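Supplementary Text 2. Reproducibility record for the structural model of the 240-residue chain.

All settings were left at their defaults, and a single model was retained for analysis rather than an ensemble. We include the record here because the model underlies the residue-level annotations in Supplementary Table 4.
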Amino acid sequence: MSPTTAQPWRPSAVQEVTILWAVGFLGIIFAFLLFGGTSIPKLVATVGFLYLPLIPMRWREEDYRDYGLTLRAWRQDLKLFLLLSLIVCPLFFLGFAAWVELIPHLPSGLARYLTPHSGPAHFTPRLPPRFAEWVIDQLFVVALPEEFFYRGYMQTRLRDAWPRGRKVLGARLGPAFWLTAVLFALGHLAIFQAWRLSVFFPALLFGWMRERSGTVLGAALFHAACNLYVRFLEVSFFGG
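Retained model, structure tokens:
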């Protein structure tokens, strides 16, 4: 009788996601503590988001396409991106303008935790300096890696563990959808700015787009557009 060959330990889907999220989160924290506000923490985040999932993916002989990094539904992704942009941008402008009016009335001790902005504000439309570079940076360095890691890899693996969910506007949303948005928001605390927890709300739209089209392309486009739009509003209201 031949001896039984021991099988290597493989984490469950939830364990796998938790471990990789923690490794990425701690990596960004250490990079921020060591290098401060340089480009190093962003580089660490980008590399981690793109390559950490490759480790378990190779165990299962998978590639990026299995986790939504594909152009197979680009028409639907583009339509969703344009539709949400037309709906969200005007609403967000009104909300941002109302928030700007509220900021001066907040207690100073509370305001520094809730917003990075201060001082008088007046809306004068203007583009940020080096805007073309911002577009490339936000799409390829920020949005695409983050969407692959969170909505592509993480949301997919968590859905393997919790496949059930309710259909909402053509997308099945369950525990994986909600937990991914929570971890996405918590991940933004790696640079110790509490107001960044607000990214939980756009994360719900990114996650819905991922489930609706089956890819992360539309979510990445909308993610980059949201970041660019916020920067446009910041410069237009506060200058600099």
